[in-house]
Amino acid sequence: MRKAFLLLFLLGGMAAFAQTSPFDKVKSRSAGEGQITIRQSPDVERSINDYVVSNSRMGGVEGYRIQIYSGTGTNSKHEAQDVRSKFLNQFPNEKVFVEYSAPFMRVRVGSFRHMHEALPLLRKVKASFPSSYIVRDPSIPFNEF
Question: pLDDT tens digit string along 43-60?
Fold first, then answer.
């Protein structure tokens, strides 16, 4: 049972990015490579394949961003665009996301899998956007990391 859990854990990380079975990827080989044979219960393979399908439907993973603006009201859309422009002038290589979730307009930056990865950018951003902070984002697309 412990080996099955370890296998699920190890393959689960790469399963989130795979469209085919992780077993197919491991079993395939190129010229000059050896061959790997996996012997296991069909239930384990079925379980991992179900996990891969489930992750591919999610469209993203939970991660973190830095929120630099949040506002409501008639001018909030204009203010959000101004904040976005100001940010891009100072940090042209960073990703910026302007989002509307009634009644809030928000400007968030970066895409981080773990909170500690956002801290260096947060320290830089705080100089120009002192009220910025790290927020959890429930579904960041895989291709943004």
Answer: 988 898 888 787 777 778
Are 43 and 74 contained in the same domain? no
Quickly list DSSP for 80-129: HHHHHHHHHHH-TTS-EEEEEETTEEEEEEEEESSHHHHHHHHHHHTTT-
Dihedral sign (CA 10, 49, 43, 33): negative
47 and 79 housed in the same domain: no
Q: What is the CA radius of gyration of the chain?
A: 21
Which is it for strands 96-101 and 104-112: parallel, antiparallel or unpaired? Answer: antiparallel
Could you say which residues of the chain have pLDDT below 70?
1-22
Q: What CA–CA distance (Å, rounded) separates 34 from 36?
A: 7
Phi then psi dihedrals of residue 141, to 5 deg: -60, 145
Looking at the structure, tell me whether residues 47 and 80 fall in a common domain.
Answer: no
